[in-house]
Design brief:
9 helices, three-stranded antiparallel beta sheet, alpha/beta, 3 domains, TIM Barrel
Amino acid sequence: MEEALMWEKLEGKKVKCNLCHFRCVITDGKSGVCKVRINQGGTLYSILNSYVSSHAVDPIEKKPLYHFYPGSLALSFGTWGCNFKCRGCQNYDISHFIPPGASIDSYSEKVTPEQAVKLAKRYNARGIAWTYNEPTIWFEYTLESAKLAKKEGLYTVYVTNGSITPDALDVIGPYLEAFRVDIKAFSDDSYRKITSIFDWRKILETTIYAKTKWNMHVEVVTNIIPTINDSESELRALASWIRNNLGKKTPWHVTRFFPYLELSNLNATPIETLERVREIGLEEGLDFVYTGNVLGHPYDDTYCPKCKRRVIKRYGFDLLEKHTSNGRCDYCGEELNIIE
């Protein structure tokens, strides 16, 4: 174990973790909600160190990030555990599982931050992404890796549920370039049905902070779950919030839900629903709304909001055509909020 960052001592050997918005108060010998940060004798430790549950070279489009170095490769890393326990989590096998005790070593591959950067360069990856489970709970590792990656000219990405506190964001902010955030719902009731959570509005505040304070590139994902977060009024309010607080050129990915775990009783999202949600986003003034998890769908492509020409054509995670230069449409010169 290594001593954690972002915590404070309390009386009676208690500690308070200030890494995510749960801000757990942890008694001696216990862990916080993430189960990977443990109080031992009045000091907070992380059990994760450099333990990797999975890593792969992914197209950046898989994150999904469509306006951030399109067509590039990101070396992606995940570890164990999560501070959310989403009822339909597709990465359940790593995010809901913590290898018991010392056996974390036998379940994991150990990749130090220095090795991660070397691997990224060996695989000709343009950058590093922390994904598959919530990167916030792996803060010490991702921070050190991000510092080294930036020195080597690699980009850095958090694929996150948005639970990181502004305090922690101020520490990693100088080294983190993209904040691909899940906004899972836009009401108390909907969020409760997906995962137990603090006040979800803090996710909105953190996302604004990532963009305005640290100038991170932000893209939003909402997995549209039938009967839970698919009401038109809720989605319209979310689209309006993105426009007003992140900007109308912020990409919104509305993705298809597939039944899993505790949500196995639900149906997959009808494609017609995704298409309607895209219309809602456009009606609310967003320029870029993408339908995700539908292979070959035309609304997975990027269209210039001014001249209406298709500027990026995709098939799955493959980029087939690109007609942009320096973030602008090659046809009419419109600024597209694309980093390349």
